[in-house]
Amino acid sequence: FLVGDTRRIIREAAEKSCFICCKMGATITCCKTGCDRTFHLPCAPDGQCVTQYFGAYRSFCWEHRPKQALRPRPSQDNTCSICLDTVEDSISYKTMGCPACQDARFHRHCIQRLALHAGIDFRCPRCLNQEPFMMEMLTMGIRLSKRPPSWQSDREAGPSDQRHGRCDATACLCPGGREHTEAHGPWQLRLCSSCAAEGIHQLCSSLGNSTCSWECSTC
């Protein structure tokens, strides 16, 4: 952009209000022809808006965002394939699925976290498909990372580097917070036995007082 164009864009954005929070300065406009909804990028999740982080970087409001067209789920399992918590019965903004196996279901925030964690190794957590899974996630607004998987970097770093030190449970129960750990007891931090890149408090896991090893959802 030229300086004049940049100033014009800033001036126009300052005059537009976000349809989600109603404050001024909305710089994102829905790409659907005829739709004049504008919003702030940080407000997008609250308004169920989608921004595609590839190509033309198009953005869509809740009404015109792309939607998945998946067949009914073959199994009766109504849990997220990543965090194992309950998901909605039908596909929605918050509940997504794999176009390859048609069976994997996951929360949007879970698959987004996995995408950034897995990097170039991002794939369906159930059937391990990469294409067309990756393209579908990009279209649905999931932001990908071009770096190697975080667990691979941790292995290369070696045991002398800093140990993972926070609870990665979807709902951490520790009153001291995710960073609080103890040597023994319910707030002892258990690291993933495969990658050591994620951890969970003993009480936040499904292990109870068991001494069995714990493995993160990614592994």
UniProtKB/TrEMBL annotation:
Keywords: Ligase, Metal-binding, Zinc, Zinc-finger. Residues 146-165 are annotated as: Disordered. Residues 80-127 form the RING-type domain. Residues 153-165 have a biased composition (Basic and acidic residues). GO terms for molecular function: ligase activity; zinc ion binding. One of its GO terms (cellular component) is nucleus. It holds the Pfam family PHD_G2E3. It comes from the Eukaryota. The keyword Metal-binding applies. InterPro entries: EPHD, PHD-type_Zinc_Finger, PHD_PHF7/G2E3-like, Znf_FYVE_PHD, Znf_PHD, Znf_RING, Znf_RING/FYVE/PHD. Residues 1-65 form the PHD-type domain. PANTHER family: PHD FINGER PROTEIN, PHD FINGER PROTEIN 7. This is G2E3 ligase. It comes from Rhodinocichla rosea. The lineage of its organism: Eukaryota, Metazoa, Chordata, Craniata, Vertebrata.
